[in-house]
Amino acid sequence: MACTVRGCLLALIFIIMSLLVKAKIDVCKRGDVTVTPNHVISLGSAVNISCSLKPKQDCSRCSRCNKLILYKFDRRIHFQQGRSLSSQVTGLPLGTTLFVCKLACGSSDEIRICGAEISVGVVPEQPQNLSCVQKGERGTVTCIWDRGWGTHLYTVYALQLNGPKNLTWQKQCSDHDCDRLDLGISLTPESPDFGYTAKVTAINSLGSASSFPSTFTWLDIVRPLPPWDIRIKCVNASVSRCILQWRDEGLVLLNRLRYRASNSRSWNMVNATNARGRHDLLDLKPFTEYEFQISSKLHLSKGSWSNWSEPLRTQTPEEEPTGMLDVWYTKQPIDYNRQRISLFWKNLSVSEARGKILHYRVTLQEVAGEEATLQNITEHTSWTWVVSGTGTWTAAVSAENSKGSSPPTHINISDLCGAGRLAPLLVSPAAEGTDSIMVSWEPPGGAAPAVQEYVVEWAEHQPGGSTQAPPHWLRSTPTNVSALIAENIKPYTCYEIRVHALSGDRARCSSTRGNSKHKAPLSGPHINAITEEKGSILISWDEIPAQEQMGCILHYRIYWREQDSDSQPRFCELPYGVSPNSHPIDSLRPRVTYILWMTALTAAGESPRGNQREFCQQGEDTAALGQDPDRLAPS
């Protein structure tokens, strides 16, 4: 049986007295140092320190020359002639202070006589907030408490637990941070209503203090172990009913479950009584990664919850897609009896796809035909056919995962940008920051009531008029006359922008160009040929590479001046797109050599000049040659 608190206190006093005897840090052969009332005092108390020489330990030449000196650590605090010295010391700080008595004989070195340590501390505070817990039905009892301020003295904390039938358990610790003890015993549930009382006592040489008793039953302190072996099973591989299962300790009565999608911060909470290790979940979303955790409790009103279990992370099964694809198209004539139809579509959202999309089913059908004429399955988000240039066509696109197919999206293939009163008016782009463009327009006059939807389409402008990248688009209601395009918009890039007005099978569009940020082009156009035609010359050039245009080109300038002339060059300015990379000039004098070059302008400024060419117009009957500046013009 463990010892009582009184027995531990007596043992502690014996240990402290032994330590005090050892506190004389010198052998003290020459004399003694005595401390009254005690070597251990409370903060604010005074202490008397006396030093005396033993017989025949005086200064050898002159006993009247004895001079005793008292040091506090290395600082002299008192001295006295003779064989003894006494001094009262006050104001000692918390902790241990060393005092040393020395003998000085004339001018010779000081001789150590003896010394003593004095410890200053406080009575222990009453331990507060004592509580005990047993982790698991077979765990051991651990109690914790608040020690309060440190005593600065050797202090023992003795924990005592009293149970039924006069049973007592006790354990102690003496570390400076002693605020918990594991009794090493396990309380059993045979009599869950039996009462237990715990108390902790703090003891040092100045006194002791005990906590208020903490009274509890087995149900109050046993905290179940967290549930383990968590798993989930969905009936018929469907999220309509998923069963969460786990293992628990035998006496668990109540569980709480929490779960959330991996991209969510908020938890769904469920309480379950007598769950017996399983619970049905009916609100999970398909093809979603979830995190599940479970906690347990032994009684509805008593005791504490276990820690949360280790998380189970798993993905729910797929379900058939529910959303419909957003489909767009382009239509381009190839020759008099063929056309190229390209279909594009956007990915379904995660909540619409409800699984991994494996492929898309695309159907293109001639309206007048009885059966689908073309079908294809693709993993891409676009498809292109070359078909007959006559007839009317319709397309259908659906997405498929492992469980099924989405409802097909049907779209009629018509001439998107033909002439007609349905075309939107005054389409205008405006930069919004560095990565978006605001597009605005006016409704198509008297045809505005017929508009069912607007589609804003954009793609990077490609020199030469070809659009190689697939278009991007967004849809807008007929009441909106503006849209912010921010998807795949890069600064210093020119975009072809079209606004389509849709009404049933009819569609019309208006187009413009725009950029989110611009500056002057990095280079000028490259003149590749100059030819003479009927008294004028025709200048042809290559477009500036797209990465050097730095926005939308608004104008070209063609400059010329006579060779070896100091006069300002003349120039003509051409709106971008008016002529297909060529332009005539009829103001050059025959048989005069000219230097020509070109620049390009954005809204931010003019580019550097492009390459220079020399040219001399020969007359109406002579073909002209364009020559590089380092070659002589014909005389």
Automatic annotation (TrEMBL):
A GO cellular-component term linked to this record: plasma membrane
Chain spans, region Disordered: 607-635
SUPFAM superfamilies documented for this protein: Fibronectin type III
Signal peptide positions (record): 1-23
GO molecular function, one term: cytokine receptor activity
Residues in Fibronectin type-III domain copies: 226-319, 423-519, 521-621
Cellular location(s): Membrane
Family, as annotated: Belongs to the type I cytokine receptor family. Type 2 subfamily.
Name assigned to this protein: Interleukin-12 receptor subunit beta-2
Annotated source species: Equus asinus
Classification of source organism: Eukaryota, Metazoa, Chordata, Craniata, Vertebrata
